[in-house]
Automatic annotation (TrEMBL):
Its EC number is 2.7.2.3. It comes from Streptomyces capitiformicae. This is Phosphoglycerate kinase. Gene3D superfamilies: Phosphoglycerate kinase, N-terminal domain. (2R)-3-phosphoglycerate binds at residues 37, 119, 156. Pathway: Carbohydrate degradation; glycolysis; pyruvate from D-glyceraldehyde 3-phosphate: step 2/5.
Length: 403
């Protein structure tokens, strides 16, 4: 894999450099609630701009449906990037259309532009190779060189991540180099006990990784939205909690395999429930109560692990030598459902373990809940990406950067 340092040594003055970043930041309306992913790509963008490149930054944000949707505009992220860089950043209101073409053509050496959300174009995420390729051709027309630095998205075989680097000279940015450097340690020489804590809302993505993790981790602690599919697989009532029905069979098999192989697969023993998903803007009290896991009311939704689970999970983390944590334990954005996530973050800090926190929302949770991000071993910008890396999978966005 060629690195950005090699590109800088070759010289970039006057070259149009396409930086595929992951600026998929949490938003409340148009306000960025955590800018960690923008700060993470600064070293790459700064180095290129200072070396005289014409930098074109692109990213996805959220999961719009292949067409423009103002709720998912990258404009706030572009503005924040400009503030952090301390320079004016141009913003193109489309990704490969007239606005992008004229914005990029207007860049002078050392200037930076952001183009609109890649996923406003159906070609970005298309399953069909030709459709993705056609979109990648249009992206390629915007640049002379490609720098991959969107670590959080390297597990996606999308046009800007996988197809575009094949069309341009390509290099890995500083963020990807750092992330891979740290995560490699967890795959090659992991210190045990190795504890993995999993939560969050991307249930179908994350249930799939447990298959591989069962052969690697000593303990797996399950929280967040995915916990309820496990509880349901054990025959418990889960009310209106998140459920991945099509994976109930797989989950039952994980439970059986864990039992046979001696891996501890730890499930919540209680939950904080409420009648409905809370209003994250008003943060009004949500009528939350704690119930034991085998007495969840049919008309309630599980939104956090309960007080006994917090203690249990902290005890399972206390003696770990390595902890990898991805996915909040509950809907931490609302104070009534933040305690599980706080307890796990605190347990990581109280342990002597090498701790890695992965994921856009997990990293944001740590900072928003007031923890010192420097107290953790590593805060990864990738959730799904880091999990799939730890599984030992070939990640499309890393494979595409190989020579
Ligand atoms: N029980 C639950 N029900 C519904 N949503 C939940 C529950 N527990 C946590 N969440 C939500 O999960 C979201 C984060 O999940 P997600 O899987 O995206 O994690 P992540 O750390 O951002 O990883 P990635 O980087 O892969 O996206 C938070 O917004 C949180 O509110
Ligand atoms: O938040 C993430 O994990 C990355 O930005 C990838 O987003 P995606 O899961 O929507 O592809």
């Amino acid at each position: 894999m060629k690195t950005i340092d090699e590109l800088l040594a070759e010289g970039v003055t006057g070259k149009r450099v396409f930086v595929r970043a992951d600026l998929n930041v949490p938003l409340s309306g148009t306000t960025i609630t955590d800018d960690g992913r923008i700060r993470a790509v600064l070293p790459t963008v700064k180095a290129l701009a200072e070396a005289g490149a014409r930098v074109v930054v692109a990213s996805h944000l959220g999961r719009p449906k292949g067409a423009p949707d103002p709720a998912f505009s990258l404009a706030p992220a572009a503005a924040r990037l400009g503030e952090l860089l301390g320079v004016e950043v141009q913003f193109a209101t489309d990704t490969v259309g007239e606005s992008a073409a004229s914005t990029v053509a207007g860049l002078t050496d050392g200037q930076v532009a952001v183009v609109e959300n890649l996923r406003f174009n159906a070609g970005e995420t298309a399953k069909d190779d030709a459709e993705r390729g056609a979109f990648a051709d249009r992206l390629a027309a915007l640049a002379d060189v490609y720098v991959g630095d969107g670590f959080g998205a390297v597990h996606r075989g999308h046009a800007s991540v996988f197809d575009l680097p094949a069309r341009l000279p390509h290099y890995a940015g500083y963020l990807i180099a750092t992330e891979v450097g740290v995560l490699k340690k967890l795959t090659e020489d992991v210190q045990r006990p190795y504890v993995v804590a999993l939560g969050g809302a991307k249930v179908s993505d994350k249930l799939a990784v447990i298959d591989q993790l069962l052969g690697k981790a000593d303990r797996i602690l399950i929280g967040g939205g995915m916990a309820y599919t496990f509880l349901k697989a054990k025959g418990l009532e889960i009310g209106s909690s998140l459920l991945q029905e099509d994976q109930l069979g797989a989950v039952a098999e994980y439970l059986e395999r864990a039992e046979k192989t001696g891996v501890e697969l730890v499930l919540p023993v209680d939950a904080v429930v409420a009648p409905a998903f809370p209003d994250l803007k008003s943060k009004d009290p949500a009528d939350a109560t704690a119930v034991v896991a085998d007495a969840m009311p049919t008309d309630q939704m599980g939104l956090d692990i309960g007080p006994e689970s917090r203690k249990l999970y902290a005890s399972k983390i206390a003696d770990a030598a390595t902890v990898f944590w991805n996915g909040p334990m509950g809907v931490f954005e609302h104070p009534d459902f933040a305690e599980g996530t706080k307890a796990v973050a605190q347990a990581l800090l109280d342990s002597q373990a090498f701790t890695v926190v992965g994921g856009g929302d997990s990293a944001a949770a740590v900072r928003i809940l007031g923890f010192d991000e420097n107290a953790f071993g590593h805060i990864s910008t990738g959730g799904g990406a880091s999990l799939e890396y730890l599984e030992g999978k070939t990640l499309p966005g890393l494979a595409a950067l190989e020579d």
